[in-house]
Amino acid sequence: MASEKESNGLDNYAFALEGHFCDLPETEHGEETDTSMEGDNNKLAYCVTDVPPWYLCILLGIQHCLTAFGGIIAIPLILSHGLCLQHDGLTQSHLISTIFFVSGICTLLQVTFGIRLPILQGGTFTLLAPSMAMLSMPEWSCPAWTQNATLVNTSSPEFIEVWQSRMRAVFVGFSGLIGLFMRFIGPLTIAPTISLIGLSLFDSAGTNAGFHWGISVMTIVLITLFSQYLRHIPVPFPAYSKDKKLHVSRVYVFQILPVLLGITLSWLICYILTTYNVLPAEPDKYGYMARTDLKGNVLSQAPWFTFPYPGQWGMPTVSLAGVVGILAGVISSMIESVGDYHACARLSGAPPPPKHAINRGIGIEGLGCLLAGAWGTGNGTTSYSENVGALGITKVGSRMVIVASGVLMVIMGVFGKVGAIFTTIPQPVVGGMFMVMFGVISAAGVSNLQYADMNSSRNIFIFGFSMFSGLVIPNWIIKYPEAITTGVVELDQMLQVLLTTSMFVGGFFGFILDNTIPGSKHERGIVAWNKAHEDDSSNTLESGEVYNLPFGITSYLSSSSWTRYMPFCPPGVRSSPDKCGANTNALESKQPPRDQDPPQILIGVTL
Fold first, then answer.
1. Whether the predicted model's global pTM rises above the 0.85 cut
2. d(CA 416, CA 420)
3. Residues 196 and 445: beta-carbon distance below 8 Å
4. Measured on CA atoms in the order 197, 202, 208, 214, is the torsion positive or negative?
5. What is the pLDDT of residues 138-188, one digit of tens each?
């Protein structure tokens, strides 16, 4: 029987919607920790405006890169099937390098000119559903010969034209309507939208896992073991500090990197099974896709250095169906980012982000989506909730750490061998990772209902109908695509993309019903949601000290009268000389306070 633990279901970094975690203290004979330490436990080692030593920036920057690893590489691996690249490991590696490179650039832009909080940028699952819906249209279906690995010649002109033309058709844009939409969007709109992101990707997870269910189950078990059962078990590591000199420090490795550890161990086991020919070597045998030598030539063929550039797949094209379809995912991504901004501010010791900073942050994410479209990542960029959670573990809220992460991701994107390594992950291992990640995304969407009154028959009807419609309508349209015939080809394509995107259908019905069926703000969950955005952190920083633009830009803008009409320009605010005090002891393991609820990321999903 599982032991009881007062955690409110929000104590696990790997699968939680919040991001406040502390290490456990060293206690003797089960003694309780002195409550006088609680104030020290919550104190940051470095707040958002501090600059840690360069070596600490690099080490923590690497950790942030590894934390985002699962989400970043999952997106190009999913898109490879829609882009007819499932048998071209070399191009897959270049796609992975590109998304690393663009994510690093967008992270640097966000930290420097955007929200200016320590928040990392990367690919988003919210744009996968409309992208795959667009690529599944009859005119974009992959030729039959690309489905058989024995018939594919990856250097042939016809194969290159197939995937390059599809890459040019993936267009990602952004909208600045976040202020307007946020007035009408609540938990009953967000819950079905986010949940259907995970549910709509079940086919990709099942297809990859089905190549060898034994390997997939092993991957699932390992990720579950690390993230759930071993998350509170510290691993001793040698450490050095000025106060304690050389000593042993306990690090919660399983809690920080459960997905990476699970994939790496499964990958290693597949390599051993391949080396000793336990896995079949015949392509038509079950389990063949679990071998690690299927793309062994990719490592040798991939260049050491590759520099992604705009238009590398050809000139991007724009279609009405693509723009409208992707817009549904972009709006959902913007709402998710607003929740991440508030959570990140609380964890980094910063005051709540003002409207001009939020507008800048969303604008930079939109610019990042445009850069991603120009470079051809097949996806956009958004704030990464899992890295927001990592701030609570390290007690380092400095944005210079995220700057280091951005630089590291750019370097990883330039080294072609890095992307090539990731393409050699066996597909059953990827399938096991997908099953865990997409399941968590679906559950994370449902968790937003905690703010609404689910004893209300009104709310039950709205959520149930929205979820069911988001599953039924896309499934029917996929089976009968010829049913949509308006006589206008562009309109047919637009409707087909929208109606085959589960998150749009579910979110649309949730939005309409929640705003038209009578209900109080408390019943709808608006009151609880807004309360969760309120500042509950103790910080000594002024708003302008954190969110004003660097390099004297704010002073220049403040001297111009026209900037008052620009929603992204900050007002003139004098900086406070007071800084949040650095506490190097906060890097050590401590007991989290029991009487404080951790800050919550409203929509973000962490893994």
1. no
2. 6
3. yes
4. positive
5. 666 665 544 444 434 444 444 344 334 334 333 333 334 555 566 777 889
